[in-house]
Specification:
With about 400 residues, this protein is an alpha+beta fold. It is built from 13 helices and 22 strands. The strands form 6 sheets. The chain has a 7-stranded antiparallel beta sheet.
């Protein structure tokens, strides 16, 4: 049996390895259009590769996917994060779990993961061809013919094909699959940071707040978690989560909106007011600058006081009701104007791609074209940051490799 895997990324290698392990007598070949293999793995996690996330349950794992989470629940019963960790460790890659459940190789180098996948592929005698971009795919009886963007219209025929070409910034990147009557969801960016060119808070670049609650005005979108102030605006897990779940909405409004920041992560404003009142009683004679509530950094606290038109030399006991209300408002309802986005590091992620309605999620086989399978980001599956996108690649690649 001849099997082709189109795409030399994480999902492609995992699918090829799984296929060869399941069908040791088959001929498996990976076709990669560029000259670089596993390029995204190499740059991921700042060069450390966030392999997966060690969250404790399949239910929690599934909630991290704005698109595809419900259908992945079944797939995760077959191959999930625990299986991923066991897979790599059993192949000589020790892993470490951070406090936030992010999983990295102990080496702290993504090259360790790259080397593992290349080593397994070589051991299994998987053929790898670079510089091989697929122009079209067609069915001839029970086989699939691939035509490559080469001179003389180079073609090869296979019994089964797994498509793992990843996301595309434009719909045109999926045309060759749409021509086979697969439903395509329009691709739009996901996982991006917020640009705030007109906001002075960018002067606090480098300041991080561990727990915040952020919302996008005029929508139901909200997220909590750590927030990082950058020289262009805001980043951090809370912002990235909001960008992922709001990908389509934010694209529709052209990334111009107002974000509401609750620096306390306390949705009950009454409790915030009570805590500030407690400070005014306990530290009445101390100046505002010297008592920083909610573990805020000095730079951020002084910035918020200035934004509230309160002198940092004013005493807590002199705040009064009006001053207290100003503080409650700036701590729980601080508003900033967002005008644009920036890609998160080098990790370009899109939502969109081949609709899951065109795919049997239990086998990853196309419902339109027999013997054609999908894995990875080419499908309309994407996740928040934290190793979840890689987990989707490992899971779908593993299941596709069963050729069920």
């Amino acid at each position: 049996m001849n099997i082709a895997v189109i795409g030399g990324g994480a999902a492609g290698f995992f699918a090829a390895i799984a296929t060869k392990e399941n069908y040791p007598n088959s001929q498996v070949v990976i076709f990669e259009k560029s000259q670089k293999l596993l390029a995204k793995v190499k740059v991921s996690g700042g060069g450390r590769c966030n392999v997966t996330n060690a969250c404790p349950s399949v239910a929690e794992l599934s909630k991290s996917y704005p698109r595809g989470g419900k259908k992945l629940k079944n797939a995760f019963q077959i191959f999930n994060n625990k299986h991923t960790m066991k897979w790599f460790e059993s192949r000589g890659v020790p892993l470490m779990i951070q406090d936030n459940h992010y999983v990295f190789p102990q080496s702290q180098k993504s090259q360790t993961i790259v080397d593992c996948l290349l080593r397994e592929s070589e051991k299994l005698k998987i053929r790898i061809e670079v510089g091989m971009a697929v122009k079209s795919l067609s069915r001839v009886e029970n086989q699939i013919v691939l035509e490559f963007l080469k001179e003389n219209h180079h073609q090869e025929t296979f019994d089964k094909v797994i498509v793992t070409t990843g996301g595309s910034p434009k719909r045109s990147g999926f045309e060759w699959l749409e021509q086979l009557n697969h439903k395509i969801e329009d691709p739009v960016p996901s996982l991006f940071t917020f640009n705030m060119p007109h906001e002075s808070i960018t002067q606090l670049m480098g300041v991080a707040v561990e727990n915040t609650l952020i919302k996008i005005q005029g929508t139901k979108l909200s997220a909590n978690g750590a927030l990082l102030i950058t020289h262009w605006g805001m980043s951090g897990p809370a912002v990235l989560k909001l960008s992922a779940f709001g990908a389509r909405i934010l694209n529709d409004i052209r990334y111009n909106f107002k974000v509401q920041v609750n620096w306390t992560n306390e949705p009950n404003h009454g409790l915030v007011s009570e805590q500030l009142q407690h400070i005014t009683l306990e530290h009445a004679n101390k100046i505002l600058a010297n008592i920083k509530p909610f573990s805020l950094s000095e730079r951020l606290w002084l910035f918020l006081l200035k934004k509230s038109d309160l002198s940092n030399k004013k005493k807590w006991g002199e705040l009064g009701k009006k001053g207290l209300n100003k503080l409650v408002n700036v701590l729980t309802n601080d508003v900033y104007e967002v005008m644009g986005k920036t890609t998160f590091k080098e990790e370009f992620v899109t939502c969109g791609g081949v609709s899951l309605n065109s795919i049997d999620i239990n086998t990853m086989q196309s419902k339109i074209c027999e013997n054609l399978y999908f894995a990875g980001e080419v499908m309309d599956i994407d996740a928040i940051t934290g190793g979840f996108n890689f987990q989707a690649a490992w899971t779908t690649g593993y299941i596709a490799g069963k050729l069920g």
